[in-house]
C-alpha cells in the first residue's frame, strides 16, 4: 500500500502530526446542518473513531479525538480545512459549473495542490485526482494525472458506499452510517455521517478531502436535506 509521500511525490497534503494512518484507522466524517441565514453551508468535523480513547468504537460518539474541522465560507463554495489548533491547512473550493475542476484544493498561499474531476460511470460516482505543480512518481507530466492515479468509485447508484483507490490499490472505504439505504435514502433530510476505513500508510488529510467531495455529491442529490 502506498504511503502518503508515494502518492504525490515529495510533498504531503497532511500536516506533520497527521501524515499517515496507523493500522485499522477508522475516521468519522460528520457533516453539519446547512443554514442559509447563518451561512454555515455544510461544515464538517473529522474524528478518529479507532482511537484508544474510544472504548466502544461508536462512530456517533462526539468524544472521539478531533483530527480536522472544515468551516464553510461563501455559502458553501469554499471550505477551510483546519487542524486541532484551528490553524488553516488548505482551502477546498467547490465549482458546480465544472466537471473537470469540480473541486480545487489550495494551500493557504493560494497555490493549487490538486483538482478533482467528476465523472459518472453507469450512474455511479467516479472522481479522479489531478495533481498540480508536482512531479508524481510512476510517469506522467507535472500538472497532469499520472497513470493509475488516485480515484474514487461509487459502489451503488445511491452514493452510500464508495472506495478510494491509488493505482487500483485500495486506500480507503467509506459508507454512510445514518441512512436506510436504497431508494428511500433519496428522501433523507438529515446530514450524513460517514465511517471511513483507512488502510495503513495513507494520508489522512487526502482521505478527508475526498470524503468531503463524496459527501457533497450525496447531499446535493437529496433535495430534502437540511
TrEMBL record:
It holds the Pfam family LOR. It comes from the Eukaryota. Residues 1-21 are annotated as: Disordered. Transmembrane segments: none annotated. Belongs to the LOR family. This is Uncharacterized protein.
Amino acid at each position: 500500500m502506498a504511503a502518503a509521500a508515494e502518492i504525490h511525490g515529495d510533498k504531503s497534503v497532511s500536516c506533520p502530526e497527521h501524515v499517515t494512518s496507523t493500522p485499522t484507522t477508522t475516521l468519522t466524517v460528520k457533516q453539519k446542518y446547512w443554514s442559509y441565514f447563518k451561512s454555515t453551508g455544510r461544515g464538517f468535523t473529522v474524528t478518529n473513531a479507532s482511537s484508544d480513547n474510544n472504548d466502544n468504537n461508536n462512530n456517533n460518539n462526539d468524544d472521539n479525538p478531533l483530527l480536522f474541522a472544515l468551516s464553510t465560507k461563501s455559502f458553501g463554495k469554499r471550505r477551510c480545512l483546519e487542524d486541532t489548533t484551528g490553524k488553516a491547512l488548505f482551502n477546498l473550493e467547490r465549482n458546480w459549473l465544472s466537471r473537470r475542476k469540480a473541486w480545487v484544493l489550495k494551500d493557504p498561499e493560494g497555490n493549487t495542490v490538486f483538482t478533482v474531476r467528476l465523472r459518472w460511470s453507469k450512474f455511479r460516482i467516479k472522481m479522479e485526482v489531478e495533481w498540480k505543480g508536482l512531479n508524481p512518481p510512476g510517469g506522467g507530466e507535472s500538472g497532469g494525472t499520472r497513470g493509475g492515479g488516485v480515484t474514487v468509485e461509487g459502489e451503488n447508484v445511491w452514493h452510500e458506499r464508495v472506495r478510494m483507490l491509488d493505482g487500483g490499490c485500495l486506500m480507503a472505504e467509506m459508507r454512510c452510517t445514518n441512512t436506510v439505504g436504497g431508494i428511500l435514502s433519496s428522501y433523507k433530510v438529515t446530514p450524513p455521517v460517514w465511517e471511513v476505513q483507512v488502510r495503513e500508510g495513507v494520508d489522512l488529510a487526502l482521505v478527508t478531502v475526498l470524503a468531503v467531495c463524496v459527501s457533497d455529491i450525496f447531499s446535493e442529490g437529496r433535495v430534502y436535506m437540511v
